[in-house]
# Entry
Amino acid sequence: MNLLVTGGCGFIGSNFIRQRLTEKGSPLTRLVNLDALTYAGNPANLADLAGDPRYVFAQGDIGDPALVTRLLAEHAIDAVVNFAAESHVDRSIDSPEPFIQTNVVGTLRLLNCTKQYWAKLPEAKKAAFRFLHVSTDEVYGTLSASDPAFTEETPFAPNSPYAASKAGSDHLVRAYQHTYGLPTLTTNCSNNYGPYHFPEKLIPLMILNALEGKPLPVYGDGQQIRDWLYVEDHAAAIWLVLRQGRVGETYNVGGLNEKPNIEIVQTICALLDRKSPRADGKPYLSQVTYVADRPGHDRRYAIDCAKLQRELGWKPKENFTTGIAKTVDWYLANRMWCSDITKKKYSRERLGTGQG
Ligand SMILES: NC(=O)c1ccc[n+]([C@@H]2O[C@H](COP(=O)([O-])OP(=O)(O)OC[C@H]3O[C@@H](n4cnc5c(N)ncnc54)[C@H](O)[C@@H]3O)[C@@H](O)[C@H]2O)c1
# Structure
């Protein structure tokens, strides 16, 4: 199988690529990673795979039809997995346009080039071809404490420019399947965490701020509930859906781990108190500061992933206790990766509170 992955230098894409190229019995003969290397894209995330002859990196935009068309043909691509996106809610509130440009226009152009390439494939290859679009639970909007979790039938009600742009891309993917027959699949996943997570997001931000003696900023009352999934479990779910999912379907992916943000911060502080105590012996929790809530902040997301479990037999390997311990260990062992990123040119203010 020759696979085109977009956005593979980001958090989830790089974990997906590593899993694909290091798993036993991988069917991949070629994996092309198309990434524009925005502030969130970091080639160092995949530095360990540079010598793998199956791996090809192409720097560029999913919205560049000439480049996408060339890559599809040159590498005889059998499947596309689209991770490329602007992904940070706070940034979308500051500046929505890049989100529309990449998440909506970029996805449309990627779909269009893929459709044209796919239409000319021989019948057997055409039938086996897949386009998998990686999306988020944020397209479904927000829940109250007693609402049932989002299912694949929950109507879209995006509340941030980020969520609206992802909802737009999900609709386009659906339309390309319905209108042109392009064999698409979509996954809508809850919040991910784990290695290589960009330090503007909640979990890495809290770990790194704690270790650097900085405030741990918590939005509002800290009671916003998210469902957390370890990134390698998400990567495995995407691979399963790509190979065995029913064409035209969407699959929710969730961690079965609903937690309020404040509990995440407390768990991280307790782990750090044990694994890397402060020099003055005080608990890391003393660094927590509450800051004004984000406008339109969704209160609760919860994902019902029964369809994925029932149809494809997926279940996450990590629970939150094991996953967060692994994550804290990774950040403690990879301080250089973190400091290289924070030295990169982006505004420190933009780091915000990291809450998705
Ligand atoms: N992080 C989460 O918790 C989460 C949860 C559910 C779904 N998702 C979705 O998964 C995907 C990946 O998320 P992530 O957290 O890894 O994001 P990320 O921000 O870490 O990575 C995005 C990658 O896409 C690249 N990119 C951006 N614009 C591009 C363009 N126009 N052309 C090519 N490459 C471009 C960036 O350089 C970066 O490498 C996104 O589509 C996101 O919406 C993320």
Q: What stands out?
A: Residues 97-119 form the longest helix (23 residues).
